[in-house]
Every structure is written in structure tokens, then in C-alpha cells.
Task: inverse folding
């Protein structure tokens, strides 16, 4: 089942990357990074990491047994993702991402509160700096403006 999932993911990733390379420009006419920079980068990483995971799964040669605890984690992550989408609209990109990472990491990475706190703050700061400062694109605004970033 894992190999079939990875093959489907690889097909989707190859299609996504193909569209990013065909339809979106890497640079603008003025020489700045264009709308294709980020999708192309993400697409290439999706394809490379999926191939890596697929090779690893093929080397393993056996399917992993399903575990009920894993399905509970998947369902919980889906619920948290829906809550994140609502929080994104209400609180904006930065605050919603900090909250989402804090809650998700506290559930999935128990016993490491310092690491969880650092990741929940440093990752959104890095994303903010990438989008706002480097790519000159703003984070999604929220209905409630907690942090005027």
C-alpha cells in the first residue's frame, strides 16, 4: 500500500512540477524572481523526496502492518489542519502558524517542550522573512489583527 501511495504521490508531484515549469515564469521581465520560483522549487523537492521515499520503500521490500494508532494520528492531523485553515482566516498567517505548530508539535512530539517552542516560533519567522523580505509577498492577513506584521 505504501508503494502504491508513493507512486500516486510521485505522479501528482511530476504533474505539479510540469505545470510549474510550463505555465509559470521563473523570472520577471525586470530580472526579479517571478511567480514560478516557489512552485518550481517545491515541485522539484516533492519529486526528489518522493523518489527517495519510494527507493527506500522498495529496498525494505515488505509492507508495514497497519496500526490503529497511526490512523488516529492521521485523523487528528486532519482536524488540526481544518482548525488551522479557520485560524488562518481569523488570526492571519503568522499567528495561525505559530498556534498550529505549537499544538501539533505538543501532541506529536511529546516530551520536548523546548524544541517544540523553538520550532513553533522559528519556522513561522523564517517563512515570514522569506515571503515578506525576500519574495516581497505578504503573509495572509487575518480578520483579527493581533500582530501588525
Result:
Amino acid at each position: 500500500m505504501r508503494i502504491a501511495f508513493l507512486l500516486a504521490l510521485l505522479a501528482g508531484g511530476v504533474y505539479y512540477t510540469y505545470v510549474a515549469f510550463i505555465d509559470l515564469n521563473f523570472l520577471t521581465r525586470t530580472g526579479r524572481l517571478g511567480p514560478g520560483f516557489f512552485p518550481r522549487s517545491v515541485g522539484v523537492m516533492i519529486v526528489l523526496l518522493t523518489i527517495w521515499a519510494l527507493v527506500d520503500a522498495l529496498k525494505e521490500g515488505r509492507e508495514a502492518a497497519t496500526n490503529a494508532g497511526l490512523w488516529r494520528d492521521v485523523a487528528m492531523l486532519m482536524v488540526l489542519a481544518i482548525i488551522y485553515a479557520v485560524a488562518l482566516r481569523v488570526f492571519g498567517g503568522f499567528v495561525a502558524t505559530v498556534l498550529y505548530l505549537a499544538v501539533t508539535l505538543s501532541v506529536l512530539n511529546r516530551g520536548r517542550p523546548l524544541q517544540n517552542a523553538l520550532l513553533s516560533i522559528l519556522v513561522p519567522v523564517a517563512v515570514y522573512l522569506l515571503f515578506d523580505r525576500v519574495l516581497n509577498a505578504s503573509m495572509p492577513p487575518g480578520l483579527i489583527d493581533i500582530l501588525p506584521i
User: Anything to note?
Assistant: The mean pLDDT is 84.
